[in-house]
Amino acid sequence: MVNCCGLITVKNEPVPLKSIAVEVIVKGHVATVSSTLQYENQEESPLEAIFVFPLPGEAAICRFSAKIGQTEVVAEVQEKQKARDQYDDALSSGQQAFLLEESDESPDVFKLSVGSLPPGEKASVSLDYVTELAVQADDGLRLCLPAVLNPRYQPQDRGGSAQVSSVPAGSVPYSLSLSASVSSPHPICRVESNCPLDPLNYLNTEKTQATVSLAAGHQFDRDVELLYYQDTHQPTAIVEAAQTSAKPGSLMGDPVVMLSMYPEFPNDVMSSMTSHGEFLFVVDRSGSMSCLIHSGPGAQDRIGSARDTLLLLLKSLPIGCYFNIIGFGSSYESFFPVKYSQKTMDEALQKVKGIRADLGGTEILQPLKHIYSQPCLPDQPRQLFLFTDGEVGNTKEVLDLVKANSGSHRCFSFGIGEGASSALISGVAKQGGGHAQFITGQDRMQPKVMQSLRFALQPAVVDISVKWNVPKGVSVTPLSPPIRVIFQGQRALLYAQVTGEVRALTSPVMSVNIFITLFLVTVHVFHSTPYFLVFSLSPSLRCQTCFVCPAPASNPAMDPLLQLISLQKASGSWVLEAPLAEVLGKTEEEVAKPKPAPVDQEVWATVLALVWLYGFKMEAQEEWQFLAMKAVSWIQAQKAASVSECIQAGNTLLGCQVQKETLGL
User: Fold this and answer.
1) pLDDT single digits (tens) 15-27
2) What's the pLDDT tens digit per position in 581-632?
3) Residue 62 CB burial class (10 angstroms; 0-12, 13-18, ≥19)
4) Spatial CA neighbour of 304 closest among 620, 552, 545, 567
5) 471 and 398, same structural domain?
6) Which of 180, 421, 505, 577 has the most other CB atoms within 10 Å of its CB?
7) Per the domain annotation, does 438 fall within a domain?
8) String of b and e for 280-303 (b: at least 16 CB within 10 Å)?
9) Is 540 part of any domain?
10) Where is the VWFA domain positioned along the sequence (predicted)?
11) Are residues 570 and 529 in the same domain?
């Protein structure tokens, strides 16, 4: 098994990399990435070399070429075994040959056999691919260029090794040059990165076109992330013009349209979150989860971040549901499953405190097989939340298993830390009808996980139909598989081939209607005559990374928000006690004294907690919104008097100005 990335010998030894140049062209929600990598054989004998590189799971390679000396070869697509035979024949006859193929274990890893590299000779490898940009919780569109291939754990029955070395930060002897050109139908607000950038350069007054470059001297020792921000929620359609050299009627001979949309469901439907379901939290406890989640100051280790997130999830679950926590590594442990109550929540929280990265290698397949073998509970839809740093070698087997069980299990996935496999994380969510999130750099895991919980608690969406209204003389042939699931506030992309009168594409008559059924009530959720941007698509590239993490820092004091969350009861209420007063910045006596006389202490404590959240933690509302909903429901169920008086007294005590309507009371 190949355990590193880049140009390596058949003995798994690296060939020196001299330079990397990357050009990125972003148009709307799609990026074309082009990379050129320069290598040199510094040995005294010829090398048979292999180029190993990762790609996003959804990426499509559109061009590949390799050059040794003055000989350049441009790849063509062939059946795998036929291509291997031709490569072997060329080598045996003394010719230079190149073979590019997808890894048998994971669809996001490609291998290129470049044949014999003479002593002192240089090799240039150029690769272009196209990929969709992932939408983040803050609506940013994310492109990731992984630096090196993260070590992938191979199951022991395959003869794999659980430990492989990685590249220490700062030891990379080459730098990366990267430039990006961004075009959008809507004004580009800003472009951000986890690496230093040169200033953003707008190319027009509308700010719909811009260029940006990575600051000079960047060492490519970790993932490079680019995020750009625009009005992502506006529906758009982008048309790729037909190639003039292609035959009309062929895939490249006719235009292709990509439609981006964000359906908006009726408020009365979306306000009714489900109280049913079986929620399974599947947490990676392999040794790699002890690494820091990022290399910056104050970084928490991955398993610690997972523990905090589990606390938030357990406090946010609705009364009446069922839940379980499964930890996995070389083996797996299942805590329950049980019905959600105060008693079971307390038991789970105690177990969560003891979770460590102590289960060896990363073996996801076996715990998933165990989960799928258990019968589902009646009227309790099963939903999986998978947390992992994505370091496995049998991705295809995992995705096949998830797909086979997608009719009864919905999967949400979270890639933690640098170098998580996009094929695994995105593939699990795609095959399981859920949503994928990546937690990298300075990202907080909690808001992204709570966004997915919001999706999981939404009403079921079924019977989705799409109707294209096109001008006379134009026909549309869908290229995308049917939409299986739509979430409020999540992008959906549709692709279609357009034939006929191409000039009619920008006609205001062309529009799209989408109908769905919510609880068997048909709702028209989308009608748009989208803004059209016509362009000719050009190709692109990318790689992936791992680095040695510094020693874990000592655990800091618990964040006040997490401390408040930890004090909430399963019912949604808080108890008037010293730990709550400490979070509020008061003594227990100061908190108890202004309580209106007829009000129960628990109601008073719960109102104070809500006022504090809305008064001081609005920037983190996505993290605590479900806790607040539970608290409001509990207060209303008590039919308590003087709630308005409580809120006024709470505002006076805490120095806030929160209105009763804001709290939902």
Assistant:
1) 777 788 899 999 8
2) 999 999 999 999 999 988 899 999 999 999 999 999 999 888 898 899 899 9
3) middle
4) 552
5) no
6) 421
7) yes
8) bbbbbbbbbbbbbbbbeeebbbbb
9) no
10) 278-457
11) no
